[in-house]
Amino acid sequence: MTDNATINADGFFGEYGGQYVPEQLLPILNELAETYEKFRKDPEFIREFQYYLAKYSGRPTPLYLCSNLTEELGGAKIYLKREDLNHLGAHKVNNTIGQILLAKRMGKKKIIAETGAGQHGVATAATCALMGMKCTIVMGEVDMERQKLNVFRMRMMGADVVAAKSGQKTLKEAVDEALAAWIGDAENTFYLLGSAVGPHPYPMMVRDFQSVISKEAKQQCLEDEGRLPDYCIACVGGGSNAIGMFAEFIADESVKLIGVEPSGRGLEPGDHAATLCLGEPGVMHGFNSYMLKDEKGEPAPVYSISAGLDYPSVGPEHSHLKDLGRAEYVHASDKEATDAFFKLSQTEGIIPALESSHALAYALKLAPQLDKDKIIIVNLSGRGDKDVAQIEDMISNGELTLP
Ligand SMILES: *Cc1c(COP(=O)(O)O)cnc(C)c1O
Questions:
Q1: What would the pLDDT profile of 216-226 be if each residue is shown by its tens digit?
Q2: MF terms per GO, please (predicted)?
């Protein structure tokens, strides 16, 4: 696993991170942190993790040179790290495999997770089926209605999908109810977080499991090009695919790291989820990081065309990298993302997830400004099959036109 240079013993990346949680959760988190510390360098744990990544998820994923797109844009070479080719179609399974292997070592029998759009729930349900764990997924009642097919997928794989019925009946309520269920039965239950967020040790743990992305990409780029890339670009929701894409390159100062947030319909409050670009530091969901606040300092309403990116906070390590100036955070709009979605589909025959399309949108702007000998790697975090119906609806409503 990654050696941790930036996190201190209390679980802070600079001033970000920490454990801002109710008293009852502290011993549970500390037990988790201690167990993880013990296993993260254990050869048998690492071997088993790598076994499932290879045999179950199909890793290593290719580093693919987009020759057509590169030629059309006339500048830097654009490579894609094909996380869309993982089992279940996204990077999320890298993390669910790692955390469930850890849960088994802790003697836990049950996994609980929350999900918004359902992608993390599906990855969790699949990995629980694989590893013989009882699985409960908490999902806002409104989200369950919006994501019926994902609810059915989870149930097919044996998960119990529970509706969160309080408040707005979406992700925030699902988090609250899943946490309550965890505190109620922490003896037997493992809480599986889906992004590089939450209290310590989750951001570090998720970063380590996702860092397989940059470990592979670095080696593949050295093999194909004989040198490191000039840019690594990834979309940022909670920040797990981005930190996975950055981790192994942080010490390589020549590699520019760029995170792309969703600016949605525009930069007014409520129209975007560009947390690092437009937010300020604050505490929510148990950790300190940049966040988008309303007038009362509460988490602000957020919006993006892609359900995987609309979160009003962000992984704490990204806040630290931003303040250090080591990574740069920019934004792409719904329109830029859908343009990129069509562009990749039509030039390379690869339909990207709408989330990943944000990273790609920035690369489309950057590449033509750079010399032909420059190298850009875009993390293609997921495949777009899940988004095709939404795009089709938008086309039939006249909100979009097929280019
Ligand atoms: C969930 C998801 C994301 C956003 O989550 P991160 O933790 O920011 O990576 C991005 N892309 C895809 C395909 C996803 O499923």
A1: 999 999 999 99
A2: tryptophan synthase activity
pLDDT tens digits, 42-87: 999 999 999 999 999 999 999 999 999 999 999 999 999 999 999 9
Q: Is 18 in the pocket of ligand 1 (CB under 6 A)?
A: no
Q: Which of 347, 336, 353, 346 is nearest to 390 (CA)?
A: 353
C-beta 238 within 6 A of ligand 1? yes
Atom of ligand 1 nearest to the CA of 242: 9
Q: What is the DSSP letter of 367?
A: G
Which residues contact residue 253 at a Cβ distance below 8 angstroms, ignoring those fewer than 6 apart? none
> What stretch(es) of the chain map to CATH 3.40.50.1100?
12-54+92-206, 58-89+211-396
Please tell me if the CB atom of residue 94 comes closer than 6 angstroms to any atom of ligand 1: no
Compute φ and ψ for 4, nearest 5 degrees: -95, 105
> Residue 241 Cα, ligand 1 centroid: separation in angstroms?
6
Q: Catalytic positions, please?
A: 66, 91
* CATH number at 12-54+92-206: 3.40.50.1100
How far is Cα 313 from Cα 321, in angstroms, rounded to an integer?
A: 15
Structure tokens at 305: 């065309």
d(CA 40, CA 52): 16
- Ligand 1: centre distance to CA 371 (Å): 30
How do residues 107-120 score in pLDDT, each as one tens digit? 999 999 999 889 99
Asked whether 235 lines ligand 1 (CB < 6 A), one says: yes
